[in-house]
Each structure stands twice: as structure tokens, then as C-alpha cells.
Prior knowledge:
By secondary structure, the chain is mostly helical. It has helices at residues 2-20, 43-79, 93-98, 132-157, 161-182; strands spanning 82-83, 103-108, 114-121. The chain has a domain at 57-84 and 137-181.
Amino acid sequence: MDGMDMGSSTSSSSHSMSTSMTMTFKNTHDTPLFSNTWTPSSSGAFAGTCIFLIVLAIIDRCLIAFKAVMEQHWLATHLNRRYVTVAGKNTESGNLDTDPDAKLASLITAQGVEESVKVVHNLSRGPIPWRFSVDLPRALLFLCIAGVSYLLMLAVMTMNVGYFCSVLGGAFLGELAVGRFIHWPEHGH
């Protein structure tokens, strides 16, 4: 008998736990956002919270677009980095003479004399070498994007219909505004 009682109590507690963990959307205006202190107490406060989520989702898309633009800038800077030979150094001079991609250019020295030099552009397709001036801002941008994205995820996980629609609406508006900067067409340079 004791074994049966234990089994029935276990099944009833697991049944009550499964019903309390059911994931369903709710349409209440008093759902806390991020903490219990941020619980809208009126329809106006709920609307303000939804507007905040819309703006936060737009900021998320803007940060992603800004990172994409900066990635293009960092790549262009890397590819346009110029390598100029210095008189007396023959480490690169032999390579410049045989490089078909080297272009003749003029360089004005400190004395104002114009010399004929070759400027070589880096055409490598590999990853950009690690540079503190590029990788620190890249990591900070990613940190901001991840933080904002996780806040939006937490808002959606409240299962509140208003919060969910606000995040979707903000993502739509953000993509509408800056989506063209995120998706760069591939060119065969």
C-alpha cells in the first residue's frame, strides 16, 4: 500500500508541475519586465513599456547595421593599406619590382622632393590580422549587440502578447530603416 501511495503522490505532483509550466501567451497588462519593480500598473504604463521594447528592438537592428558598416570600413582600410619601400632596405624592393599589382605613384618627401615609388595594395582574402584598434571596438560592439538581444529575448520569454508584438514590430521597423546596411552584396573584387 505504501508503494501505491507514493506512486500516486509522485504522479499528482508531476502532473501539477507540468500544468504550471505550460507555455502559453497571456494578454495581461501587469506582466513584469526585467524585474518586479518594472511592472506596469496601468494601461498607459503598459503602452510605455511596449514603446520602450519597440525602441530597444530598433536600437538592436541599428547596432547590427553599424557593426556591418564598420566591418566593411575595417576591411577596406586593411585592403587599402599602402606599403612603401624605404631607401636602403631591400626586404620589399625585390617583391615590388616583380609584383604585377604594384602601381606607380608619386610621393612627396619631407624635403618636398617628388620621388617615383611603387604602392602595393593588399589583395589577400584571408582574415584581417588582429589589430587592437579594430578588434577592441569590434568586441565592444558585439557586447552591446549581445546585451540588447538578450534583453529582447527576456522580454519575449515573459510570454506577454504585447511585449512579443512590440519586439517584432521594433525588429521590423529597424530592418526597414537600416536593413540595407546589414546585407552587403558580394562583389568579386
